Amino acid sequence: MLIGRLKRGDSLIEKLIEFVKDKPSGVIVGLGALESLTVKTYDLSVKKYHEKSIEGPLEVGSFSAIVGKNVEGKMDIHPHIVASDKEFNTYSGHVDRAVVGATFEFFFARSDNEISRYFDKNIGLNLIK
Prior knowledge:
By secondary structure, this protein is mainly beta. The chain contains 1 helix and 7 strands; from the N terminus they run βαββββββ.
């Protein structure tokens, strides 16, 4: 297991993709705070995402991401989050963009199996093989 921390102002997704580029498949779990967040939920009936942007401060109650090879064969992440604002309204979904607030702490655990994805035209998403 590896442990890491991102600092205020970091682009959460960009920094985590940079972190995993030379790692094996696995899982990232994290918590912390965000200045801003854009989450998406997938609508299978129309095969499109609905998107919502939220301005912080936001508290990350749960973050998890599957680490594996994307359809181009590069290491990538599939990130999901649950975060709340100062009124304790909660938002969850696939993380599109996020900017770290005070801190973001995470650990990476390696998988025994290689994870890779393919595009499933019936679902409209990149799924694990």
